[in-house]
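<instruction>
Derive structure tokens from the sequence

<record> Sequence and structure tokens follow
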Amino acid sequence: MKINIEGIKLLEKIFEDNYLNYDTLIKFTKSKGTKGFIDHEKSFNRDISKSKIIAELIKLEEDNEYKDIYDFYILRENVSRLKKALLYIDKNGEMIINESLSKVYNFIPKNIKIQPNIYLYAGGIDGGFTVYRKDIFINYIKYFNNLEEFTKVISHELFHCRLVSLNNKFKNLFIDNINNRYTYEILGKILEEGTACLIQHGSVLEKDDPIGTITKEKMKLIGKKFSQLNYILLGIREGNINYLEMEKLDIYSLGYYIASSLYNFYGKEILLPWIEKYDYKKPIKSYIQAMRQTGNNSGFTKEIEGWLLQL
């Protein structure tokens, strides 16, 4: 496992050269990191193409004041620091990966393998993403010159790449009835991202995530986010699937709140059913029971609590 910096190195070269080298521009758009970024953006129906990226880079080279739509200008304005940062990653990549892995293995069994490819890319609003548990893509613009957060976001994505059996996940998604399927999809995403955020940030959020996925302000609004979740779950129970509301749901804040609450009450072992078998029922039921024992509001309505405990 290594951190592939090819795409960012090409971007550095583009900004360092005093002339436009179209061969370098083409190579940049064909790099694994940039291709992954383009595919990711297209999956969200965002307007992007190789030609559009090249056009934005040309505008940057022609106008020193131009701020492109992909935020490449941030690296252009800091190209000397970028060069040093990439040299550091190239030399210390193994150490960075090991530190990230240690954060993950603090929560998951040591026998679970994690062996993805890691690619740096530049552009867009996201901090990173994982494809098929095989490839990790990190938007280096968001973590430029911030080694601590860079290491933390890699740990988040490494968790998603754990190699465990998908049998239980497939059973819930393709065999169970449609209501159970959507319940699993929502609560499973919440537990998956919540556990990843717990690994990334710890059980106490000391500072906001650089891209705003988890912030102290969002956590203050967790009651409102649970209200949205209750509305969705009630609809699923009654056979009314609200896809628009599902897309708007803040699974990161909800997940972090639930996962950190479980960790603080029971310890990390309570998350193992999800980590090892993608079983959401035990952690969710345990969360409700923990909130009852501590006299805290789970965020779920009594009606939804009763329904979830019977699943």
